[in-house]
Amino acid sequence: MSDLTLALRQVRFTNKAFWRNPASAFFTFAFPLMFLVIFTALLGNSEQCLNPLLKHCPAALTIKTSTFYISAIATFSIITATYTNLAISVTFYRDSGALKRVRGTPLPPWAYMFGRVVHAIIVALLLVALIVAFGVAFYGAEFPSRTWLAFLVTIIVGAASFSAMGLALTGAIPNADAAPAIVNASILPLLFLSDIFIPIQDPNAWYVTVAKIFPVYHFAQAMKKSFFQLSGSGWSGGDLLFVAAWGLAGLVLAVVFFSWEPKR
């Protein structure tokens, strides 16, 4: 059996293991929808301006709050399904000795990681599809039919990049007990600063300058442009290159510092 066949079988195995835990699968998909409903209920569904610096915003530059949060929560879902879940779950597998046992089997190490990463990307795609469908059905949002290709490519680039960064982070996590705290500490502040949980009101604020250093902000901007871009193709090349560069750096760090055995 070829290494590629083994890798594809690993994708299938990881996917079956995920769906055989219905409680985990249910809340994985329900949690982002809860966020979408809560944020829209708290902040209303009024029109907001795409350019917060304008005092008098023309109607052509306004979108509903729900439309903004469909893109924002989709971004959050992708990061959660890849970066957060991979970093925490792989650390738990490492500390339980499961990774060490896998390393001792004929299965190529890259095939095992390929299965986990591809499964995370598939879950991210399903989450985005669910959120967009929910937004279209209950909030009157429009599917990005004109920019669907840019939207799909943005999702895949972001999911792959954050998967690599999640694997890289495992090298800095000392044990499974510390995994949730370290992972959340590394991502939650950026979610609040990067135009996801709270819309940016002042693009020139200091926290926006800080957020621009990290990939979360640029991924959020690329997702927004590809989802409800009012004109143009929806591509955000600069933001995607920035996210991909972080993903490449994460891949290099993961290769160098990833451990298959529990840390002491």
How far apart lie the N and C ends?
A: 36 Å
Main pleated-sheet profile: 2 strands, antiparallel
Number of domains: 1
* Shape call: globular
Which sequence of strands runs across the widest sheet? 1-2
Oligomer: single chain
Estimate percent helicity. Answer: over 70%
What's the mean pLDDT score? 87
**Binned strand content:** under 5%
What is the tally of helical segments?
10
Number of strands: 2
Unreliable spans are none
Q: Structural class, judged by helices and strands?
A: mainly alpha
Rg (C-alpha, Å): 19 Å
Series of secondary-structure elements, N-terminal to C-terminal = HHEEHHHHHHHH
Explain the overall architecture.
- By secondary structure, this protein is mainly α.
- The protein has one domain (3-257).
- 70% of the residues lie in helices and 2% in strands.
- It contains ten helices and two strands.
- The chain has helices at residues 3-19, 22-43, 65-96, 98-103, 109-139, 148-169, 179-193, 206-211, 215-228, 237-257; strands spanning 47-49, 62-64.
- It has a two-stranded antiparallel ribbon.
- The radius of gyration is 19 Å and the shape is globular.
Topology:
Elements: H1 3-19, H2 22-43, E1 47-49, E2 62-64, H3 65-96, H4 98-103, H5 109-139, H6 148-169, H7 179-193, H8 206-211, H9 215-228, H10 237-257
Antiparallel strand pairs: 1-2
Helix pairs in contact: 1-5, 2-3, 2-5, 3-5, 3-6, 3-7, 3-9, 5-6, 6-9, 6-10, 9-10
